[in-house]
Amino acid sequence: MIRHPLFRFFASLKLAVVNILALSAVLAVATILESLYGMRSVYLLVYGTPWFGGLLFLLGLNVLCAAFSRYPWKKHQTGFVVTHAGIIMLLFGSWLTQKYGVDGNLPVFEGQPGNEVILSEHQVRLADISGRNEESFPAPESALKQSGELMKIALSGGYELVGVEYLPRLVNEPSWVASGVEGLGSPAIELELYNSRFRVHQWLAVKEADVPATVNFGPASVYFERLWNAADEKRFATDSRPKPKAKTTSKGHVEMQVGGANYRFTLEELQKDWQRLGKTGFQTKLDKYFPYAVVEGNELKNRGPEPLNPAAQILVRNVQGLTEKHTIFANYPEFATLHRKELPEGHKAFGVKLSLVMAGSEHRPEGTPSGQGELKFVQSADGKTLKYRSKGKIGDLKGEGVVKVGEPMATGWMDLEFVVKQWLPYGVESDQPRYVETISGGDSNFLSGIKFEVRRTKGRDVSFDEPDTAGMHFWLSEGGTKPLSIGGRDYLISYGKEKLLLPFVVFLDKFTMGTNPGTNKAASYESRVTVIDDTKGTRKSSLISMNEPMVHAGYTFYQASYALEDGKPPMSVFSVNRDIGRWVKYLGSLIIVLGAALMFWMNPHYWGKIFGYASGRSAKAKESV
Amino acid sequence: MKKLVTALLLVSTLAMALPQVPHETPKPRDFDFSQIRGIAIQDRGRIKPLESFAVDALLFVSNKRSWKGIEAVEVLFGWLISFDREWEDEQFIRIDHKGLKQELKIEVERNYFSPKELEGSTELSRLMRDAGDKDRRKERQTDIEKKAVTLQGQLNMLQAIVSGQAFNILPNPGGLDKPWFSIVSLTQGGEPVPYDQATLASTAEAVRLMLDAFISRDAAAWKSSADAVAVKVRQLAGGAYPTQNVLDREVSYQRSRPFHWSWIIYTLAFMVLMGGVIGRGPWWGRIGLGVLGVGFALHTYGFIVRCLIAGRPPVTNMYESVLWVTWGCLLFAFIIWAFYRNNVILIASTVFSIAGLVLGDNLPAVLDPGIHPLEPVLRSNFWLTIHVLTITLSYAAFAVSLCVGNVVLGYFLWRPSATEKIQNYTLYMYRAMQIGVVMLAAGTILGGVWADYSWGRFWGWDPKEVWALIALLLYLAVLHGRFSGWLKGFGFAAATVMSFLGVLMAWYGVNFVLGVGLHSYGFGTGGMSYVVAYLLVQLGFMAASYLRYRKAGASNAPLFPRNA
Question: Are A323 and A315 spatial neighbours (Cβ–Cβ below 8 Å)?
């Protein structure tokens, strides 16, 4: 057998070199694919494929044959034989893991039990509406976009559900498309609103006939309304006339915030008399105004009449008559306004925030309180024109006109501009997700999705008393569930990763995260869990932390990650794993390292000189290894 | 820029007109900064001396350790106290990406820009918006967008210093791991701080005097007030403050720059040792060895001090791995030298160490020399540390084989007839490679065992581990290629040198080119041009060597010397 040409081929060093280089090249390409498509995709494209398994098998066979080809082994070959045996063991152990191992994730919320381990294979599950009689079907999976007849699920009543499109990485973003029928559908606009440090981009659609669509963006409220008739049109037109306002002669005004409400007084008003801050019980008055404030001798003084550094000292008093004196600078809104030394001992500040805004200064530094502007869009009754009107934060008209789709237009406040990128007078919401072709930064937390279409199996007519559901289509993204009514029957369809039910329950008692001093960066995290095993009738409490897993009933639980979301208890994610190849791999590892060390140790080049080992062998023998 | 100092000075006795600020170019003050350098500050999860913070900040903003003879700490105070007077128009913000400069519509030829020039740049805002959008949509950012994000980071850092927000020098009496307070808390109406009123007031007064002294360039007042501030902040801590020894050790580490001097001494040693090769006198070699030994000792010392400061071995980022690998390279060179007593091994390896340390010294944007806390995954795990150190040490051994391999290629190019020399150097190269292979195999497997133990996956096809495997496979292919008789003489040396590209990819490429995977704690950007330049030079050298070798014809001499 040793002489057999096939054996000699598989034992040859040249095959080894070719094999090693081929593997290197494949792996190099795989890492590039991973950077483009993510971990799961590269598993589907390379690591999980039969041909890659074959490549590894060939390598193992090569190593095995090479080891046996030198049989009977000589003493100096010990290192060589041991190392190669270790490699075979490692490869065998990995095969065992891949073939028989379980590897998944178990997310558990704090104070809740969990036993559904999420595996990596995808499937579609179909149940009747009560959730009973669930059947599961393996779902197509791929690194790239797919279309065609990807999967088929036969339904009763002569229908079938066909997977017609597959996206491996998608983002669900609400979007609208034209309904295709004049007069049918909801008006929708795709709006982008931006200035130098702010940008929003989103769809606004009038879903309910008489209710304007509203979005609040912080600095602006945006409305989109559909006008139905001439009366509506007239209402809009008349509202547009700005209320006649006295021309402002004020030097400037003071904005105040207390108890969540905003107040605004001109300097002149404040100079005249005490002004009330609504029903808060506070009153306010201007003490001194400095157009050109300077500090001299620890005191604020005025240097001239030009408003070069406007400052104001404002008195605020409460119902008890206790008075705070605030100094505010128009140019330095970030300064603290309240100076403690002017207050009685133990005084608790009223918590009034003030800012001084000079007339004619549109400049509003970041972070200062401000009112909201208003941007309103209306679609005319005939659906032919889209108009807009923008108002400043005190309701003053800043601009109005007919919207030109795709052109930037100014709102007239805060340098805000807007573009109506698309306008659909009659639109319908689209469930078409956005395909993410390549990923960035290795974050492969994208969901996949399948588009299903309901089709009628051949040779069956639909009876008159049931609605024909053929042709209906919908997208289902990973983790999604959808009720379906097809051919008069109700189903619940869901798509996601295969799940494994553990024979016991892991209850998360407490999740703790430590942070680096003075930061929010996680320094460590750990989970206190209780394992409730009814099959054994036991309860066991353990701590799972980074690098410190827990083992129960053959499953090992590792602290993998966590999720903290507002309004939800903390979630801890465990990596769950059952690996029968583990010890084979460990042993293989140990043997490889041992063998490599032996090769070194028994290598006369190195230690021979020092220890006089194996000094009698010829150079030829050494080269032959 | 929002300024803190005006808020502090408003209540000061110093008479000054706020809107009128005379502009001047920054000039060094003749101040004693020794006291203030050692004041503790809490920055990005670590308590460090102000010196470290100042150096990190200046390196980040300006890519320099001092600015026109003004030391980092003084620059820091200049930004805080005298920003609109001295720094607003000073061109000190480093932008070197051409594309970004074009995009920002600023002079492409210039590398330094003033805060005034960059303030309120709508182009930068737009780039930041685009970058942010892409980040949210998990799309790939363009190089220009990434650089814009970095620039915004520089500006934010500057803003944090100018506004005083970054000056977290007021300790938390609750403990070193609790958040500290910034000097903004000293302004009236600032964030509440847990100190008694009297101490707080006297601290604020001391800080105010210090700021006054800085502006009026009063050295004596600066000295006395800085001393007072140092005492005050320690008082505020109520014991929760690092000892002065610890702080001083880090200050002296920052100021002595052991790795900077290491490469200078290595360069000197390289020249002296080269003199030994050319001049053939025995003393050149001996002196050269001595100088190299001094450099290595300094390198070792710096390394140990850095470990002591950080309280951990150097496994966090590229910079630290460069320090470690350049050190290991010389360590292995010394070990092989101990067997064969050939100085060329040292000379060749020194080149690698010098190159590494020079890059580490000059590319703070790529190789961040700041000492930062460990990522949780790397924390307090003995085996993990061993795994990383073993793998990176194998890179060091491969670096020796690369350097000596290039010597072999050099002989093929210039002295193809020197068979004995070629045989010797091939043997040294081979030895280094053997060390590397054993360490890389052991390190990779250790990594697998560790990953299995702590994450439950022995091998997850993570790019970093895949590339370590590829590097190992390449060297294994070279070894087996030699056994099979495919690689001889030139081919063996050339293949060994080429295999280092696998190491380069595993070490640098995965983090900086691919940028994916679980080992993301070491990720960064930049440095690509240097790697490409090296590649071109290496390939050119190899091609020249190959052409000469082809012309000279393959010799039938054995690969290694007879007596090996």
Answer: yes
Task: Report chain A residues whose CB lies below 8 A from the CB of B456.
Answer: 103, 549, 556, 558, 575-577, 579
Q: Which two tokens stand for residue A357?
A: 């805004």
Contact B150, B139 (CB under 8 A): no
Contacts of A604 (CB under 8 A, 6+ apart): A613, A614, A615, A617, A622
How far A336 CA lies from chain B's nearest CA (Å)? 5
Structure tokens that stand for B42 in this block = 């809490």
A-interface mutation test, from B480, B482, B559, most A Cβ less than 10 A away: B480
Say if the ipTM goes beyond 0.85.
yes
How many angstroms separate the most distant Cα atoms in chain B? 89
CA A197 to chain B, closest CA, distance in angstroms equals 6
Give pLDDT tens digits for B437-478: 999 999 998 888 888 887 778 888 888 889 999 999 999 999
Tokens 């994208």 locate to: A446
Residue A241 tokens read as 């006339």
Task: Write out the two tokens for A69.
Answer: 């080809």
CA atoms within 13 A on the CB side of A360: 4
What pTM was computed for the model? 0.80
B376 near A CB under 8 A: yes
Q: Which residues of A touch B481 (CB under 8 A)?
A: 17
- Is the predicted pLDDT of residue A99 greater than 90, yes or no? no
pLDDT for res B517: 47
In Å, how far is A328's CA from the nearest CA of chain B? 12
Distance CA B22, CA A326 (A): 29
Residue A535 near residue A546 (C-beta atoms within 8 A): no
Q: Are A562 and B438 a contacting pair, CB within 8 Å? A: no
Q: Residues A121-148, buried b or exposed e (16+ Cβ, 10 A)?
A: ebbbbbbeeeeeeeeeeebbbebeebee
Considering only residues 393 to 432 of chain B, which have any Cβ-Cβ distance to chain A shorter than 8 Å?
431
Distance CA A242, CA B444 (A): 74
